[in-house]
Amino acid sequence: MTATRIRVGGDSPYDVVIGTGVPAELPTLLKPGVRTVAVIRPETLPGLAGPVAAALSEAGYEVVDLPVPDGEQAKSVEVAAGLWSALGRHGVTRSDAVVGVGGGATTDLAGFVAGTWLRGVQVVLVPTTLLAMVDAAVGGKNGIDTPEGKNLVGTFLPPAGVLCELSTLDTMPRRDYVAGLAEIIKGGFIADPRILTLIESDPEAATRPSGPHTRELIERKIQVKADVVGADLREAGLREILNYGHTLAHAIERDEHYGIRHGEAVAIGMVYAAELSRLSGRADLVGRTRSILTSVGLPISYRADAWPRLRDHMRLDKKNRGAKQRFVVLDDLAKPGRLEGPAEELLEAAYKEISA
Ligand SMILES: NC(=O)c1ccc[n+]([C@@H]2O[C@H](COP(=O)([O-])OP(=O)(O)OC[C@H]3O[C@@H](n4cnc5c(N)ncnc54)[C@H](O)[C@@H]3O)[C@@H](O)[C@H]2O)c1
Ligand SMILES: O=C(O)C(=O)C[C@@H](O)[C@H](O)[C@H](O)COP(=O)(O)O
Ligand SMILES: [Zn+2]
Question: Could you identify the atom of ligand 1 that is nearest to the CA of residue 48?
Answer without folding.
Answer: 31
